[in-house]
Design a protein that fits this description.
about 130 residues, Jelly Rolls, 11 strands, mainly beta, 5-stranded antiparallel sheet, about 0% helix
Length: about 130
Amino acid sequence: MRVVTVTPPSFPSVERDCPLLPQAGREWQVLCGDADHWRAGVFSPQPARAEEIGELERHTCPELFLLMHGRVTLVLADGAEGRRELPLELGRPVLVTSAHAGYCPDGAHTGAALVIERDRFSTEYRAPEAW
């Protein structure tokens, strides 16, 4: 197990009132935020199957996921309920509080989701079987 703490400001400076251009082929990229409040990023997983996921993460705050394009499936560990898969759907945001990770069923980085989270939190990482 490892723990990572995020503190404000935890996002890059950007030119305001201009389009933000995420880089292709990155699993996680923080785009922008509001210090001490929120930050937004793009999640585009490399794994193509749940079995390829090496660790799940759980934050001390909820995260909002909204599918932007392609297909992304979240793997959620709900403690006593075990693990389950949740395919994201266009236009249907999901608020995630469970330990989680994701994969793109059509291949690495073929799908992407917008993620909104706090600007200050800690994340616990463990192997999937440890949840």
